[in-house]
Design a protein that fits this description.
This protein is of the alpha+beta class. The chain is built from 17 helices and eight strands. The longest helix is centred in the last third of the chain and has 31 residues.
Length: 389
């Protein structure tokens, strides 16, 4: 007879299972332990530790923790080799577990590669979603630009002349711009949205908004701010409105992917069922109607009160005018009262019995039970009722 695994043993096995992550060679590095013909190396030990969940790995920090971890790895290897020597590798139980793990791994790999990997969201669906949900893809007007700040208008014009003369804007900005926050970056200002206020550079909301009237690549005339005079060249400019489809295509595709995967899976499943000649024997699944005598006999032969009451209930439901229907209805009430102590349910069952079968020979017994329920044992036993004695 197979013994049940104790709680302590189960805990040990679980802990060792967490360690048994590697299946290959012991790897390189110095040997830190040897069990039988198996070397446990530094490399293997580090690899096993790295594969543990972070919380578990923290338990083995430091030299003492590593020694404890090594002890567990040794313990796992000892038990593994002992199981091999005892022939468990070929036992039916182990083979069944291996087959179950292999089956699950194969299904997961197939679903990942063939179903998820084979799912394609149709282009028409992406375009339709984009057209039907413009509110999800609204963007504020945004701008990205370079500038050169000078304290005087003449200084700004001098910088502008050099740029118009062919010099690189960024190089001139590094040399001449008096804005310490952007000069080293060639005057480049982070992307701004319309309505933003860049107070650190003296660029007020009004100043920034005025730049949106410019054109990409154009070198502006000197513009006045609270801090000085600026020469500006717009690098990027996006108007307010709906983002282009290409900018949001990946987002839409990811949102539609789960539904597309389910649809693709359903279709592929039907194809596979057909290819594998899948059939269902409906006859086996159709509940078999049991005769009144069969149900009555099953109830008499069953010790469990709930199961017995189930047979009686099925008999009353299937054969309400049958030979044993009144007895079955009475027994439902009897079991509820005498075996389950559910007096409310018992009263309902007995009242139903008197209502449906008022001329039954058990009507008097049902009435007595209703009047004396819970007070003392009835003057009859179940065997008396069923045998008619």
């Amino acid at each position: 007879m197979q013994r049940k695994t104790t709680g302590v043993c189960a805990a040990v096995i679980l802990a060792l299972t967490l360690l048994a992550t590697g299946c290959g060679d012991s790897g390189g590095g110095r040997t830190v332990a040897r069990v039988g013909g198996k070397n446990i190396t530094e490399t293997e030990l580090s690899a096993k530790l790295a594969e543990l969940p972070p919380f578990t790995r923290q338990q083995f920090a430091g030299p003492e923790g590593m020694r404890e971890f090594l002890d567990r790895v040794i313990e796992e290897e000892v038990l593994f080799q002992a199981a091999q020597r005892a022939g468990y590798e070929n036992s039916d139980e182990v083979q069944t577990m291996v087959e179950a793990v292999t089956r699950r791994a194969m299904i997961q790999a197939y679903y990942r590669d063939e179903i998820e990997g084979g799912t394609v969201v149709p282009e028409a669906d992406i375009v339709a979603y984009y057209d039907e949900h413009p509110e999800q893809f609204q963007q504020r007007a945004q701008i990205k630009f370079r500038h050169i700040m000078r304290s005087t208008r003449d200084g700004a014009n001098a910088a502008r002349d050099r740029i118009l003369g062919g010099e690189d804007f960024a190089s001139v900005a590094r040399e001449l711009s008096e804005d310490a926050g952007t000069s080293e970056a060639g005057g480049l200002v982070r992307t701004l949205y319309k309505g933003d206020d860049l107070l650190s550079s003296g660029m007020s909301e009004i100043f920034v908004e005025s730049l949106f009237d410019g054109a990409v690549g154009e070198v502006s005339v000197p513009l006045r701010s609270d801090r000085g005079w600026h020469i500006v060249r717009i690098e990027e400019l996006s108007p307010e409105g709906v983002k282009p489809l290409e900018d949001v295509r990946d987002i839409i595709e990811q949102s539609l992917m789960p539904a597309a995967t389910r649809e693709f899976y359903t279709g592929r499943l039907e194809i596979l069922k057909s290819e594998l000649n899948t059939t269902i024997n409906e006859e086996v699944l159709t509940p078999r109607t049991r005769s009144e005598e069969e149900l009555f006999s099953l109830a008499q032969e069953t010790d469990d009160p709930l199961q017995r009451m189930g047979y009686y209930s099925e008999l009353v439901y299937s054969y309400p005018e049958g030979e044993h229907a009144d007895e079955a209805q009475f027994m439902i009430g009897f079991i509820q009262a005498e075996e389950l102590n559910n007096y409310d349910a018992a009263k309902n069952a007995l009242n139903r019995m008197l209502e449906r079968y008022p001329d039954s020979e058990l009507a008097e017994s049902a009435q007595w039970m209703l009047e004396n329920m819970g007070s003392e044992a009835p003057p009859f036993e179940e065997s008396d009722i069923l045998t008619g004695e």
